[in-house]
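note to self — DONT lose this again. spent like an hour looking for the file last time. sequence + predicted structure for the chain T wanted, 396 res
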Amino acid sequence: MAFGKSHRDPFATSVGHLIEKATFAGVQTEDWGQFLHICDIINTASDGPKDAVKALKKRISKNYNHKEIELTLSLIDMCMQNCGPSFQSLIVKKEFVKDSLVKLLQPRYTLPLNIQNRILNFIKTWSQGFPGGVDVSEVKDVYLDLLKKGVHFPPSEAEVEAAEQETAQVSSNPPTSVPTAPALSSVIAPKNATITLVPEQIGKLHSELDMVKMNVKVMSAILMENIPGSENPEDMELLQKLYKTGREMQDRIMDLLVVVENEDVTIELIQVNEDLNNAILGYERFTRNQQRILEQNNQREDTNAATEPSAPSCDLLDLSPSTPNHRATLEEVNAMNAQLSHLSFSSPTPVIMNSLQPSPRPQMDLLALENTDTAIAIYEEIDVHHRKGTQNHSDC
């Protein structure tokens, strides 16, 4: 027992004392050997999991020291990978996830973005389950609650790699036809109600979600193929339509997450929502960069216009005769004027750095498409775009 600490102090236990030392801000960096030692104690001591969770909770509760929070998150991550279900099942309880981790996301803790994203990644990953029969229903509830509140979860490294591979496949082998945008309305129930899907509805929903996935792949492919400031106008027109459709689909997916009572469907809805959200964020980031480049070009044009040389003044021309005492005759003046009349003193035409006109910032249009013809037209355009291939990009 640590000296001077009561039995009620979570840091007074053997594992708690080690956790306190390993996550102290003065350590500065992770001691992975000590972390593994803590995992061994958790796995071997009868009260190891319970004592460890209490100590971890104390370390991050009402703690404004970012270094200690970061060290504790690293220790939690290692313990979740190396400790058994008895420890994992305690960590994924709402008491720890919501009352400790989620509270750290509040503005008063001013956590850096990378630490916030790490907490969100924990919640997202844990909600997908563990081997060994760990009950993740409580952390899944927290995850869904955050989704409904509009929290954007960052993609994991595996998801980023998978998305890049899919994008490369779509770019090299574009689909000859793309299904129409799904309605996702056939199974939506009134809000605050719950529904149980029949097999036919589940099959239809999976088919429609596959169409949403195709939308995401096409959006990702276009974003990868274009550079802000030198983009293909046809691509941008199609991308904006897909963005509006994606916003509509995301709204309907969120409605389904609230009412559907089917674990497999819920997991797929969560995954599709994450992929769709990443594509939407990618488009919005692209348009912001477009606007920024446009503003820079406009400023450059204004600067060039302001520094443009004016017509030379006649004061700069030496019209006086070479001999100081000689006055120019009328015939000499007329001859000189005739020569000067052939010169052009107009200023040079300024070079236009970028003729791209600013496009309005896309609005989050959540209204339904008027009919399926609009959606079909979208995919006809992407088909034409891919058939043109490299020629369209060389024309840009």
